[in-house]
Design brief:
Length: 516
């Protein structure tokens, strides 16, 4: 009897302590004089965020109410939502050492094969240092014939489909194009996604892109109760090892996870390509110019990778990063191409100006050197990047040591989330022309270094930015050289932007008219 009373009393006391800690966490912003909407107990503001259709619009609407720096809670974790560009410049650039990681699901960090987006501090630094040279201008120049081959196939397919229909969704063809480009340039494998529509790689990748890891229940649980993360991590690792062992012991009863889980399937394909490379002669590998080979060249030669490597990448890191390039480069780049095409279809005068510039080069092939001469194309793309940025949720930083930024004391563990749309549509940053109007020439004026954030900023800026811009410019130059883009009947209906990890339209319906 006494024992029961003691147990119940202990339980109630612990519950009261836990609840009062939760409550006191919610005074975090109030104590610092930072405004914000009122939190809901336990969920903070993430009940609203998880149920809203558009994360970006929700942030923007709170910004209108609470200003350029305000506070919300993810569970009890403080989340600063910021559209003050000077404050962000400190976070992303000047005080990078105190804010060097993304806020990202623990599911990306499960194994030792953490990739660039998931890596923190020293591990990120080592990887970035090793991978940066693979994206240099000199290396990209070598890759342009690979990209050109994929564009050729894209143009042929577009022309074929265009002849068969009154309008077609070019976004689908862009997705196949960017997947082809990634396969050629990252894996070094010859694919033909335009014609091989049932390609297994494309199908597996499509499943991966549909999964929004940030909205998975396990991710939400770990955000709400961060202390659960190590337990969840161990549980998932144990589960994977258990399934692999069971499959080895009784393959007929327990299926191979590699076939069941698309991510494992893709990683296994990367491993096969790496194995094939390891058996190639030195002369053959010397001829290869893809990202995989460049990373293999930067690989550590040590047997005891974790303890003795200094600058190289481990085998697992190479695999994880090749996988990441696929995920990070496919959807973003095809979406940017789709957004550009939408604008070209509704702005014929801008399209003609671009055509004139492309035509003046007197070329019908566009390589790295040629596209760098297209000045108006650069302005046009920047304006598309401003008005239709690809992702808000990736633009975060976690505070890894308590510090003061612009007079605000920010505690270790807090998250900084950029309110990208407010910045990109801010008339003080982008005037005097109305930011809701599409005006490429506004980029001739020097702007604040944090005014355009589609690729992020600071040391963690998108590593594939130059690669993506090269691919987009080469594709548009070739398309506009051969065709005039006309709006399809269902263009506006299809161009409904959905806000997931990438902000993307449903479809871009157009018609192509051959130029003489
Ligand atoms: C139009 C296309 C693209 C857009 C809009 C885009 C956007 C972004 C953004 C916003 C970030 C976060 C930057 C930050 O936190 O400051 C990022 C990071 C990254 N992107 Fe891209 N990206 C694109 C294409 C690519 C391509 C083609 C690749 C690779 C082939 C790539 C690989 C990466 C990687 C590896 C990171 C992580 C960098 C790090 O944390 O050090 N991206 N990207």
């Amino acid at each position: 009897m006494y024992l029961t009373i003691i147990v119940v009393a202990c339980f109630i006391s612990l519950l009261v302590i836990y609840l009062s800690i939760l409550k006191s966490r919610y005074s975090y912003f109030q104590c610092r004089g930072i405004p914000g909407p009122s939190p809901t107990f336990f969920l903070g503001h993430f009940g609203i965020i998880w149920s809203t259709k558009s994360y970006s619009r929700q942030l923007q609407s709170w910004t209108k109410q609470f200003g350029s720096i305000y506070g919300i809670f993810e569970g009890t974790r403080p989340f600063y939502v910021v559209s003050d560009v000077d404050f962000l410049q400190n976070i992303f650039i000047h005080q990078f050492s105190s804010f060097n990681s993304h806020r990202i699901s623990f599911l990306y960090k499960l194994s030792k094969s953490v990739h660039l987006i998931g890596a923190d501090s020293a591990r990120w630094h080592q990887q970035r240092h090793a991978i940066n040279p693979a994206f240099s201008a000199a290396k990209l120049k070598l890759m342009d014939p690979l990209i050109d081959r994929c564009i050729e196939s894209f143009i042929e397919k577009s022309s074929e489909i265009n002849q068969e229909s009154n309008e077609f969704d070019i976004y689908k063809l862009y997705q196949r194009l960017t997947m082809d480009v990634i396969c050629h340039c990252a894996f070094g494998i010859d694919t033909d996604m335009q014609n091989d529509v049932d390609n297994e790689m494309m199908a597996k990748a499509a499943v991966i892109f549909k999964q929004d890891v940030e909205r998975m229940s396990l991710t939400k649980l770990s955000y709400l109760m961060p202390w659960l993360t190590p337990i969840l991590t161990r549980f998932l690792l144990f589960q994977t090892v258990l399934f692999h062992t069971l499959h080895r012991l009784a393959p007929t009863i327990f299926p191979d996870l590699t076939d069941k889980i698309p991510r494992f399937w893709l990683l296994a394909r990367v491993q096969q390509v790496i194995d094939a490379r390891n058996t190639e002669s030195g002369a053959d590998t010397a001829k290869r110019i893809d990202l995989l080979q460049l990373m293999l060249d930067a690989k550590t030669t040590s047997q005891h990778e974790e303890t003795t490597r200094e600058k190289g990448l481990t085998n697992d890191e190479i695999k994880a990063n090749i996988f990441l390039f696929m995920v990070a480069g496919f959807d973003t780049t095809s979406t940017m191409l789709a957004n550009c095409t939408y604008v070209l279809a509704i702005k014929p005068a801008i399209q003609e100006k671009l055509y004139e510039e492309i035509h003046s080069l007197e070329k019908d092939k566009f390589d790295y050197d040629t596209i760098t001469k297209l000045e108006y194309m650069e302005l046009f793309l920047r304006e598309v990047l401003r008005m239709y940025p690809a992702s808000t949720s990736v633009l975060t930083r976690v505070c890894n040591e308590t510090t003061t930024v612009c007079g605000h004391l920010i505690e270790k563990g807090s998250v900084i989330q950029t309110d990208l749309f407010t910045i990109h549509y801010n008339p003080d940053l982008w005037g005097p022309d109305d930011p809701h109007e599409f005006v490429p020439e506004r980029h001739l004026t020097k702007r604040h270094p944090m005014a355009l954030l589609t690729f992020g900023a600071g040391p963690r800026i998108c590593i594939g930015m130059r690669f993506a811009m090269m691919e987009i410019k080469m594709t548009l130059a070739r398309l506009l050289h051969d065709y005039k883009i006309l709006p399809g009947k269902h263009l506006e209906e299809g161009f409904q932007l959905r806000d997931g990890f990438v902000i993307q339209p449903d479809a871009v319906y157009i018609k192509l008219q051959k130029r003489n």
